[in-house]
Design the sequence.
C-alpha cells in the first residue's frame, strides 16, 4: 500500500491528503435541511448530512489527490449511525481508487492492539471465515505503549500489505508537554522517531517503509531533524492551513527526491466554501470550492519545494 | 460518577471491575453454535455470540461488583455489528446499575478529543437536540498529546459528572520503552502522574477526583510512588491475574482508607470456565464459573489489604 501511495503521489503531483473530518457546522444549510427533513434532527439525520457532504467533496476532488484521511472521532460522536457513514466513506473512497488513511489513533497493550489492527487493517476470524471490518489502507497509531503495542499493527501490515503512521510529534500547542521532555539531552519524540525507523526496517516497500510517522507542520524545525532520523518513513504532516502551518514550513519534511511527506488539510479544504477566498462559489457549490482549495494547496506546496 | 463508583465499591466491598473483553475463543461452543446457526459465520453471528456471552456473565456477577470495563477494541474488530453489541452491553450494564468504564484509550488534538469526549461521555448537538452516543460513565484516555488533548475530556466530565482514567503506567512488558525514560532523573510516568493530579484538582468529587489514572498491577513499586503523587486520583489497575499481577502486589495502589484503587480482571473472570480451578462448572455454567472467580478475587484482594 505504501507503493501505491507513492505512485499516486507521483501521478497526481500532489503530496496532499484531504482530511474528511466533517463537523455539522461545515455543512451547508440546504444539505442539513434535506437530511433533517428525511430523518429528523437525529443521529441518522446528522449521519445522512455528513454522508452527502463527504460524497460531494470526494466527487469533486478524487482525481486531483492520492489519498483521504477520515478522522473517526468526528463520526464516532454520532454513535453507530456515524460509524456507518465512516465505513461508507472508506468504501466509497476505495471505489474511487483513493488511498484511505484511517485517522484512528488507536493503541493499547499487545492483545488489544491486535484487535484494533484487525478492526482497521486486517481480517477477523469467524468460524471458517476471515472478514474485514473497517478495512482502511493505513491507520494512525499511538506509541505510548512501546513496541509490544505496535508489533501487532506491524504484523497485520506485513500480512495485508497495509501501513501505519505512528504519532511522533503532534501538531497541537501542548504536544511538547510530554513529547519534548529531554532524556539525556534529547527530546522524547526523537526516541520515538528512532523506534519508528527501527520498526520500519521490518517491512519495507520499494523505496519507503509501511511504517510511517505523524509530525505536525507546526513544528518545522523538529520535522527537519526527524526527517533525518527516519529517512525511509513517509511523514504524514497535519497542521497545514487552519492550524497555522504554511507551505514554506513543509519543505523540511520532504526528502531530496521530492517524496517522503504527505500533507493533510481538513477544514481548509472541506470547509473552503466558508472562507472569503472561495465565497464566490456559494454554499450550493461547496464541492467546487473544495476543488479550488485543493488546487491552491497543490500550488503552494509545489512552489515551496521549487524554492528550497 | 466518581462518588457513585466509590459508594458502590464500599457497598459491595469489592474494589473490582470485570473486563468485558470477549474473544470468540472464550465463548463456550454451544453459545457460538446457536449464534452461528441463527446468523451464519458472519460479523452478525459473532456479535450475537458475544452479546449472549456478556449477558450471561453480567447476570451472574452484577450484584457482587461495582463496575465493568468493556474493551472497545474487542468489539470494533467485528465492525458495526461489534460496536452495536458494545453499545448494547453498556446500556444493559447501566440498567443493572453498574458503573461502566469504556476502555477506549482515545486521545487526539483538542478539537478531535472533544469529539471523542462527546462520543463516549457527552452529548452531540444535532439541530435543536442534544443526543448521547455511547454514553459510558468513564473513559480511558491516552496522554501523549498533553493538556490540550485532555482538557476537552475534563470539560465534558464537569458538564456530565462523568470521569476519565488517564494512562500513566501501562501493564504491558514494553511500557517502559517510553514511559520509564528518565527526565532529570525521574521517569516520564511520574510527570504524567503529576499532570493527572493537577488536572484532577479541577474536578473533585466528594473524596476523589473525576480524573483517575491507569497504573498496571505488574509494576507495584511504581504504583507505590504514583499513589503518593496522585493522592486524590482513583487508580484503575489492569494486569491482575492473566497478566501476572497478584493480590499482594495490589496493596500499594490503595490509600490508607482502603479506597483509591479498582482492580480489573478480564480473562481471569470472563473465561474462568476454561481454567482447571473452575472446570467443575462445565461449559454450560460458564456464568457461575465467572461468579466464583469474582468471589475468589474479592477474597484475594481483601486478604492482601488486611495483611498490609
Sequence:
Amino acid at each position: 500500500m505504501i507503493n501505491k501511495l507513492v505512485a499516486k503521489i507521483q501521478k497526481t503531483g500532489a503530496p496532499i491528503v484531504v482530511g474528511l473530518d466533517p463537523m455539522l457546522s461545515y455543512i451547508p444549510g440546504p444539505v442539513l435541511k434535506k437530511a433533517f427533513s428525511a430523518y429528523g434532527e437525529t443521529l441518522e439525520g446528522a449521519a445522512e448530512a455528513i454522508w452527502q457532504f463527504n460524497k460531494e467533496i470526494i466527487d469533486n476532488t478524487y482525481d486531483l489527490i492520492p489519498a483521504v484521511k477520515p478522522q473517526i472521532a468526528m463520526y464516532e460522536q454520532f454513535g453507530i449511525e456515524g460509524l456507518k457513514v465512516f465505513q461508507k466513506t472508506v468504501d466509497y473512497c476505495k471505489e474511487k481508487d483513493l488511498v484511505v488513511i484511517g485517522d484512528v489513533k488507536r493503541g493499547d497493550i499487545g492483545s488489544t492492539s491486535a484487535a484494533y489492527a484487525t478492526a482497521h487493517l486486517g481480517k477477523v476470524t469467524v468460524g471458517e471465515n476471515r472478514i474485514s471490518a473497517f478495512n482502511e489502507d493505513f491507520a494512525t497509531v499511538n506509541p505510548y505503549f512501546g513496541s509490544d503495542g505496535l508489533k501487532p499493527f506491524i504484523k497485520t501490515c506485513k500480512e495485508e500489505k497495509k501501513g501505519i503512521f505512528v504519532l511522533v510529534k503532534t501538531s497541537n500547542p501542548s504536544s511538547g508537554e510530554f513529547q519534548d521532555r529531554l532524556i539525556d539531552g534529547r527530546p522524547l519524540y526523537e526516541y520515538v522517531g528512532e523506534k519508528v525507523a527501527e520498526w520500519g526496517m521490518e517491512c519495507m516497500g520499494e523505496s519507503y517503509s509501511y511504517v510511517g510517522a505523524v509530525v505536525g507542520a507546526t513544528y518545522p524545525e523538529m520535522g527537519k531533524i526527524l526527517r533525518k532520523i527516519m529517512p525511509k518513513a513517509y511523514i504524514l504532516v497535519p497542521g497545514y492551513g487552519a492550524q497555522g502551518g504554511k507551505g514554506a514550513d513543509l519543505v523540511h519534511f520532504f526528502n531530496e527526491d521530492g517524496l517522503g511527506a504527505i500533507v493533510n488539510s481538513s477544514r481548509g479544504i472541506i470547509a473552503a466554501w466558508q472562507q472569503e477566498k472561495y465565497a464566490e462559489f456559494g454554499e450550493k457549490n461547496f464541492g467546487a470550492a473544495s476543488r479550488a482549495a485543493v488546487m491552491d494547496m497543490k500550488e503552494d506546496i509545489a512552489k515551496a519545494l521549487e524554492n528550497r
